[in-house]
Design goal:
Elements lengths: L1 E2 L12 H11 L13 E4 L4 H12 L7 E7 L8 E3 L3 E2 L7 E2 L1 H10 L4 E2 L14 H7 L4 E7 L4 H18 L3 E6 L4 E3 L1 H16 L3 H10 L7 H13 L5 E8 L1 H4 L5 E9 L1
Length: 268
């Protein structure tokens, strides 16, 4: 079974050559020797005209191994709360296989995560990341995990299982947390709220991130996958985070009355 693109020609070019051209524009060519060894990244998932430069600038700065665990929010509410996809992904730039060895290990170590393709069928939050990953890692294998609304306590439990699975897997794994920041706020209000959330990520404080976003009404759609990713990265020894870029949709649209915020961060 393969998962077909859900948002090609909407969020990004569906034509392979046009998409490759877009990737060359959006992902700076950074020599491998100058890239960071990272545990994870936080990347936005909007249409490329809005957030593609932030995503490209972020992924270009890290060494991307062959296996990437991508966590994103479930915008549609379909499928399980913690849904692991095991279908290969048919994408314009080529089919991407799921790393079934890591997927199987995750299902064994984190029983709250279930094998479920239904959640992935219409969702864009993981799909838009794939061309960026393909651009920098031709041998890419995915482990795609959709995350719905779950408690912080469940995030803690699942994170321990994910970290144990990655340790047992024994090969390098990059964790990508897919999220946009504030939605449809004025630029000053979005920047103020997003700074609060970004500060918690920079402090490697997943509990503070979870509490700040929910408590302050920040419409960061991927707060839960981001908090979960941070928990896993801390379990695996992460010690620092850096902000690569913050911007908003007004840079492209010219409308700063209602913007969506985008941030790219590296966790190492």
């Amino acid at each position: 079974m393969t998962r077909l693109p859900a948002v090609a020609d909407r969020f990004y070019p569906g034509d392979p050559e046009h998409l490759r051209s877009a990737m060359k524009m959006l992902v700076p060519a950074v020599p491998e020797t100058e890239k960071q060894q990272a545990q994870g990244v936080v990347m936005p998932h909007a249409g490329y005209i809005y957030s593609g430069a932030t995503a490209g600038n972020t992924i270009s700065r890290v060494r991307v191994p062959e296996t990437v665990l991508v966590l994103g929010p479930n915008h549609h509410g379909r499928g399980a709360a913690l849904a692991l996809g095991t279908d290969d992904w048919q994408m314009p730039m080529g089919t991407v296989s799921v790393d079934r060895q890591l997927a199987t290990t995750i299902l064994r170590h984190a029983p709250r995560i279930v094998e479920d393709s239904e959640a992935h069928v219409p969702e864009h939050s993981l799909e838009v990341q794939v061309p960026f990953l393909q651009q920098v890692q031709p041998k890419l294998r995915l482990v795609p995990l959709m995350v719905a609304q779950v408690s912080y306590e469940i995030c803690q439990s699942v994170a321990r299982g994910l970290a144990a699975a990655i340790r047992e897997f024994g090969k390098p794994v990059l964790i990508v947390a897919s999220t946009d920041m504030s939605h449809y706020e004025s630029r000053p209000q979005a920047a103020k709220k997003d700074r609060m959330a970004i500060e918690r990520i920079l402090a490697l404080d997943p509990q503070g991130l979870y509490a700040t976003v929910l408590g302050s009404g920040i419409s960061m759609c991927g707060v839960i996958p981001t908090a979960l990713a941070l928990l896993v990265e801390l379990e695996l020894g992460a010690t620092r985070a850096e902000l690569v870029q913050y911007t908003d949709s007004g840079e492209a649209s010219g409308d700063i009355r209602q913007v969506v915020g985008y941030a790219g961060l590296i966790i190492s």
